[in-house]
């Protein structure tokens, strides 16, 4: 959780393009032909990873060979690199980013419908290198989750206000995989060892097969956790997508499931866009298929009241589409990824801002300013010059800023702390336009070479 009045933004908004127009909606397709990978039989279910440096990774899983490739974007989803091999034997299932560590989760079936394993590996350098695979769960082991076969399939995770990493998953109670139960796993440590993780069954009620495919996690402003689960059992109480709330702020215990919308085929994803504590209002986005019987009519819904209701519902694509996944980029712009079911090798990427959904809404930062870049790089960048240039958003009311720079992410001992930044005090180092401030460190404050984290706030 950000400290009061400070903004520590790790996403590099300079990577975005075409985000300045009001109500912007930019769409491009990632078409992956068989020749791109040299293999046939792809299954494309977009579960992108937003890396700490602002790049987007899009894993691509090959069912027949169980290999996983990845394509990357450095410009907010406008262009993509040639896919490269990322995992040689495991299916990528989801991720979570805490500070500057990326945790990626994988699933492996040793014998179809009987044996499976759940793995995790991590990177502390934006994916340049990865740790070895760490076994979190195998089908013999019920220490992590109390399921007799416990084929653990993960989804994405979140970091709670107290620093806990919480990851959504499914536990299976029989080898035929027809008894799926939503579960969570978590760690209060760095999670680098299998023993760091714990787990619990989220909901084990009478709702048939509550599936993982809608496994979003959101911490509400009151500290409790909200998630979804899809039920394809058409018996009592019927198919559909259900929502579940935790009964605590730890994410370990949950109450009953309640129907969210009546579509047993819909695959959905929800994400917090802004919180009420740091912005002028709470905003939570939901992508789902707004058709009670098929995966069509892909719709974006926007909630301003912590998921009590949805004030905005806007259809995005009326054709067959599935596997939606939302990523919040820098400058509060979003990317929506989804599969084009009519073209199995195509993923559609749509980038939009808040005014596309609600023309009367404007996202405002309560803290008054937002860190953008250091030497055109994101937070945690390797700085080679002693007098780097910082960029941050211009406050509409503030006339003086404070900038802190530290080689520790907790800012326990800042290497640089300048609290009188404005045009009058630093005429040669300070410049601004209508939206942005650029500030070059004066010669009196020289930084040594190394990795640095930055934060900025408005003083007056």
Describe, in plain words, how this protein is organized in 3D.
- The protein has 460 residues and is mostly beta strands.
- It has two domains: 341 residues, Neuraminidase (6 Propeller); 88 residues, no CATH class.
- Helices cover 2% and strands 44% of the residues.
- It is built from two helices and 34 strands.
- Strands 2, 3, 4, 5 and 6 form a five-stranded antiparallel β-sheet that branches. Strands 15, 16, 17, 18 and 19 form a five-stranded antiparallel β-sheet that branches. It has a four-stranded antiparallel β-sheet with strand order 1-26-25-24.
- It is globular.
- The N terminus is likely disordered.
Helix fraction by DSSP (H/I, runs of at least 4): under 10%
Please indicate the count of domains: 2
Low-pLDDT stretches are 1-22
Query: What is the residue-averaged pLDDT?
Result: 78
In this structure, how is the largest beta sheet organized? 5 strands, antiparallel
Oligomer: single chain
Kindly state the number of beta strands: 34
What CATH calls the topology of the largest domain is Neuraminidase
CATH-level-2 architecture of the largest domain: 6 Propeller
> What's the Cα radius of gyration?
22 Å
Broad CATH class of the largest domain: Mainly Beta
Instruction: Report the β-strand fraction as a percent range.
Output: 35-45%
Number of helices: 2
Helix/strand/pairing category: mainly beta
Distance between the termini: 24 Å
Gross morphology is globular
């Amino acid at each position: 959780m950000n400290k009061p009045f400070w903004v520590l933004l790790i996403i590099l908004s300079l990577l975005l393009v075409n985000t300045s127009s009001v109500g912007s909606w930019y769409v491009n397709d990632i078409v992956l032909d068989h020749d791109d990978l040299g293999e046939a039989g792809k299954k494309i279910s977009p579960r992108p990873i937003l890396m700490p440096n602002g790049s987007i990774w899009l894993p691509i899983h090959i069912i027949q060979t169980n290999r996983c490739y990845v394509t990357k974007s450095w410009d907010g989803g406008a262009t993509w690199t040639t896919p490269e091999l990322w995992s040689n034997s495991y299916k990528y299932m989801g991720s979570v980013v805490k500070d500057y560590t990326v945790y990626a989760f994988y699933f492996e079936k040793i014998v179809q419908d009987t044996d499976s394993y759940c793995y995790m590996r991590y990177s502390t350098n934006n994916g340049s290198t990865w740790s070895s695979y760490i076994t979190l769960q195998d089908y013999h082991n019920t220490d992590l989750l109390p399921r007799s076969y416990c084929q653990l399939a993960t989804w994405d995770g979140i970091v709670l206000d107290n620093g806990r990493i919480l990851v959504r998953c499914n536990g299976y109670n029989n080898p035929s995989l027809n008894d799926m139960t939503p579960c969570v796993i978590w760690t209060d440590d760095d999670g680098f060892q299998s023993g760091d993780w714990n787990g619990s069954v989220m909901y084990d009620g009478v709702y048939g097969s509550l599936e993982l495919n809608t496994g979003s996690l959101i911490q509400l402003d009151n500290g409790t956790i909200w998630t979804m689960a899809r039920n394809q059992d058409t018996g009592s109480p019927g198919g559909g997508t259900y929502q579940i709330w935790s009964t605590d702020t730890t994410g370990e215990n949950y109450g009953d499931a309640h129907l969210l919308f009546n579509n047993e085929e819909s695959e959905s994803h929800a994400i917090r866009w802004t919180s009420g504590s740091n912005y002028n209002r709470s905003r939570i986005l939901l992508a789902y298929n707004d058709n009670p019987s098929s995966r069509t009519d892909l719709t974006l819904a926007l909630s301003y009241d912590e998921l009590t209701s949805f004030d905005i519902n806007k259809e995005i694509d009326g054709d067959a589409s599935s596997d939606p996944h939302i990523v919040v980029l820098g400058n509060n712009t979003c990317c929506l990824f989804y599969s084009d079911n009519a073209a199995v090798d195509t993923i559609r990427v749509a980038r939009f801002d808040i005014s596309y959904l609600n023309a009367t809404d404007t996202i405002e930062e309560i803290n008054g300013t937002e860190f953008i870049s250091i030497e055109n790089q994101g937070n945690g960048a390797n700085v080679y010059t002693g007098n780097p240039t910082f960029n941050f958003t211009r406050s509409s009311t503030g006339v003086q800023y404070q900038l802190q720079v530290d080689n520790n992410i907790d800012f326990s001992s800042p290497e640089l702390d300048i609290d009188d930044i404005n045009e009058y005090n630093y005429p040669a180092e300070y410049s601004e336009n209508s939206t942005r401030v650029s500030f070059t460190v004066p010669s009196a404050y020289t930084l040594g070479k190394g990795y640095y984290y930055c934060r900025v706030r408005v003083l007056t």
